[in-house]
Structures are given as C-alpha cells and as structure tokens.
Amino acid sequence: MHKMLMDCALSKEGDGVPVKLVVNHKCEDIDTNSGTVVFTDGSSVKHDVIIGSDGIGSAIRKLIGIQVEKRPAESSCLHANVTSEEAVALGLPSYGEMNSAIEYWGGHGSLNKIVLSPCRNSSLLSYYCFFPREKGDYSGQTWTSEDRPVGELLSPYPDLDPEIYGHLKIGQEIRPWRLWVHEPYSHWQKGLACIMGDAAHPMMPDQSQGACTALEDAAALGLLFSKDFYAGSVEETLKLYEKVRMPRATKVQAASARARENIHERIGFSDNTDNKLYAVNDESSKLTIAEMNSYDMRADILSKWPVSAQTSVTTNGR
Fold first, then answer.
1. d(CA 37, CA 300)
2. Cα 37 from chain centroid?
3. Is the pLDDT of residue 152 over 60?
4. Which residue ranges does UniProt annotate as crossing the membrane (predicted)?
C-alpha cells in the first residue's frame, strides 16, 4: 500500500504538479507564518502548507505548541511472529488456514488478551500479547530494542490453552509495543501548519483504527484543499480541518482506550448486545461498525462549513 500511494503521488498522471520526494531530512524548526521548514543540516524550504505526519514522536506537534499529557497504560504488550510451517511441523493447529480473520482470546473482564493476525496468506502468524503492566513493564523500551526472550512472552500466561501456548513457545522477533494513553490535544493546527495521523491522535491498538483514522485525515485534507472546497486561505482551511476531524478522531481515541480494558467496547463486539458477557461503559458513546463505515465526510465538511460559503458550494453541485 505504501508503494502504491508513493507511486500515485510521484506520477505525472492527473491534475497538479507531481510530488518531489526528499528523504533523510530531520525537522528542527518551522515558521507557521511563512511556511518555512528548517532542517538539522542547515537547509530550509518554504511551502504553502506544512503537514506534520511524523508519528507519535512528532516534531511538528511540539513546534505548533501542543503540550502532550500522557501516561503508561495499565497493560503491556509483546509482539511475536510464528511461522505456520513450524507450528504444523510440531503438530500444532494451523490457525491461519482454519480462519484467515483476526482471532481473539481473552479480554472479558481481564487485561489479558491475545490477538492473532494471519499475514502473508496465513504463512506468518502475528501475535499481539497483552497483559497487566505489573507482569512486565516495557514503557522504557522501543520497538527497535533487542528481541526479548521467549520466557518473557510465556510468563504472563501460566494457564493458557496448551495449543496457543505451543504457538507462543516458538515465537520469534519478540518485541515490546509501548502503550501510552494520550489525552486529546488542545489543537491540531497553527498558522500554515497542521498535524495528522499518530502525530494528532495516538491511540491504543484495540480498535484497529489508527491507520484508518490517519487515512481519513488525509482524505479530509484532500477534500478541503480541492477545487470543490478551497476558498483561498490556508489558515482558515486548516481551522476547518481541525473542526471536522478532531471530534471524530477523539471519539475513536477514547473508544480505543476503553477497548484496551474491555473487549466489548471494540467495534463489532459493541453490537453483540445479546452476548451474556456484554457490557459497555456508556451506550451513547460506544463505537459501532455502522458509525465507522457509514461516515459521510463530504456531508460532515458541509455541516461545519461557514454559512456564507455553503450556498456557493451547493449551487456548484459539489
């Protein structure tokens, strides 16, 4: 997908000027009034708009004055890969062939939860293993840290089903996934600069909506700066972007944090109201599949569009 998006941006096909991709430049400072970006090597560039899509450790976020309030989650997570070939050779179930969908174990009234995501046509099984932080605190480590020993992966689950336990025993590339709960940020934009994706709304992984929400951010920017909507002011457009995106992303962010502690808060599970274990914090704030999949971004933009501009946009059939 990354390659497809890059090729699309660099292509000469379509309207506009193709993107010029420049790598290995670390941002040191920005001027939100002029659109100037200064890099650590001393070079600088000036553009119409600065979009910080630079992840959870965003430099742009800090440079537009956002104060981050975060705390370690009550859970820790270790990720491990298992090859289906090795599992089958040991007489273990071939979970990927049995069901190519995401599988869950646990999560009912417990911080213990294991998530299996089959990859590469189910030849590789990707395990995300969650457990209470007191059983292993990895908040000071990074994804690029050295692999952890398999014993650390197994120790939180002494009573785990023997077959799943057998899979984890042959886990490879065991690495910590740091879990931090971020409070919603005060703003996403300043002058000619804004943030998007994990830079704007880092969230727990339990709704699987981090990347989806980032794609929505990009789509919103694309619409707002299109001929259909752009009225000539970058600053006003970025303010509208924040007005459109922040409420929805913040709701997903909050629902993801709740789903970390209660699997019934996860989309899909939140619709299973006849499940005898079903329980959510608040019916009015839970996240649903319909809410995520039926979202009409264009209508959302128009509902928040300045009244003075709505007539011309509607008249033009856009």
1. 31
2. 25
3. yes
4. none
Asked whether 104 and 110 are in contact (CB, 8 A), the reply is no
Domains in the chain with CATH codes: 1-68+181-305 (3.50.50.60), 73-177 (3.30.9.30)
Sorted by sequence, the CB contacts under 8 Å of residue 189 that are 6+ apart come out as 64, 195, 238, 239, 241, 242
**Contact status, residue 287 vs residue 270, Cβ threshold 8 Å:** yes
Residue 315 has pLDDT above 50, yes or no: no
Looking at beta carbons, which pairs linking 222-225 to residues 24 or more positions away fall under 8 Å?
223/297, 223/298, 223/301, 224/301, 225/49
Cβ contact 195:279 at 8 Å: no
Using CA atoms in the order 145, 149, 152, 154, what is the torsion angle rounded to 10 degrees?
Answer: 130
Largest Cα separation within the chain, whole Å, is: 68
Residue 306 near residue 295, CB atoms below 8 Å: no
What average pLDDT score do residues 79-94 get? 95
The model's pTM: 0.87
Neighbouring C-beta atoms of residue 9, cutoff 10 Å = 12
Closest CA to 82 of 70, 100, 94: 94
Q: Angle of helix 307-315 relative to helix 297-304, nearest 10 degrees?
A: 140
